[in-house]
Amino acid sequence: MWEETLEQTVPPVREWPAADLPGSDFDPVLSELMREGPVTRISLPNGEGWAWLVTRHDDVRTVTGDPRFGREAVVDRQVTRFPRHFVPARGAVGFLDPPEHTRLRRAVAAAFTARGVERVRERSRALLHGLVDALLEAGPPADLVEAVLRPFPIAVTCELMGVPAADRPRVHTWTRLVLSPAHGAEAGERAKHEMTAYFDGLVELRADGVAEDVTSLLGAAVGRGEITREEAVGLAVLLQLGGDAVTDNSGQMFHLLLSRPELAARLRAEPEIRPRAVDEMLRWIPHRNAVGLARIALEDVELGGVRIRAGDAVYVSYLAANRDPEVFPDPDTIDFSRSPGAHVSFGFGPHSCPGASLARMEAELLVGTLVDRVPGLRAAVPPEDVPFKKGTLIRGPVALPVTW
User: How many domains does the chain have?
Assistant: First the structure.
């Protein structure tokens, strides 16, 4: 009888295969789920059971900012999920709830303020110009990902983290091995172990905490007893790896600009609109497959016309929220005159991306520098022939063949 009532009062469970999609195509299953209602139920390829999916912009912000939905409880659950291999680490910042989560983020917050980002802007600009110099000197054709879009964000993150210049090639190699499934799980685990050992030594070395880089801030926080050494090292590795997301986001941006040269021409002609245009592209690009990390309802919550029960798993879709027509009229259109500041591409609430300001700065530098310095930049292959990642949570081109 209870099951009968349940079926009458909640939406059906929809299977979401989350297949690899070409280019920047928006997931058709997600489009259907958005049409079916603001709160639906899904089953993903791995894990167990079903979960709620929240797609409306305001509801997404509610769930991500409401302490009645927690991450910590996910550690003990086999929640339905997209990744095949998923071992949530107890105590990792992504699976902590406030106040513990707040305590860890506070340790590095100063590096990600506007002042912290400005501290590395000019050095980042110089790094980028060096990469573009090398690109132009080598001549066309080139792979824009390999030449610029991958090394630039890793170098900037190293700058922010306080990784010495001599060590950056090693960090670059570890990052690629950890994040690319092409190298195999064993190579990735070995690289992560080596990177962890490296940052353990660097945090210890910076224990005096006199500088403003991330490892110095972490070393100082350990010295004050605010966080443990293990927490500091885990956070350092997470932040270093997280910087690579700029590669995928900027790869999608340039795939878009190369596919629609009229957009690039406008950015070249109207430099004043570039910050707004970058934000609009960040809103529009589908930066992930399916959904990210789940939350667990810690008590019964009414949302979008349904009752979410305590213990239920809940996902939010930032992609869907960014296409909510109530917030972004004609949301499937790229409109550089739009003010898309309400987008949630960097998340929302306590678990929002700490590096959002840094990522924006990097994207603005990339777009401005390349459209100005390589005005003839164009795709060397048809847009549909650009290879995109397969079987990964984060979407982006594997390579971006260009000429000029």
Answer: 1
